[in-house]
Amino acid sequence: MEDRYSKFKKLNWLLTESFEAERIYYNASEDVQQVELKRFFNHETVNRNRFSYEISEQLVQAGIEPARDWVQKGNLDRDWREERKALVKAKPLKLLKKCRKKDQGNLELYNELLEKKALPKEILKLLKKQKETIENAVEKCQKYESGEEALDPSNQPRVRKLKAV
Prior knowledge:
By secondary structure, the chain is mostly helical. It contains 5 helices and no strands. Helix 1 (2-31) packs antiparallel against helix 4 (92-116) and helix 4 (92-116) runs antiparallel to helix 5. It is elongated and about 75 Å long.
């Protein structure tokens, strides 16, 4: 019986980290002003919420109580000074970096769980799918950070074709 709980301990830890990633993306989407980034952060918030739900569901099916430490979402952990700072100085590159760092940390947990192969195959398949989605988000963050993708496409200079008279 104890062995079953030890197998799922890291999965429960991953659930906690997934809740935290969801909150980071949510806060970033609230703080950022660029429409393109707001969409990206909102999309990733929804993904992390879905990941948390899927992991919780697998834990319940295995008879393990899911960790609920990070269930509270949004700005609930911020005080008024942090709120003011976020509204005044929302720096998109810092927000992207924070989200990317959290995802990279979570990817290490995913890799550890996938390499050990101690969990049932259906859970491993689910984790592999989630890991690929996170890797895509990290890649997208890096593209935004490097400038490969514009943070605000509406601010890019437009090229016009001139017709000869």
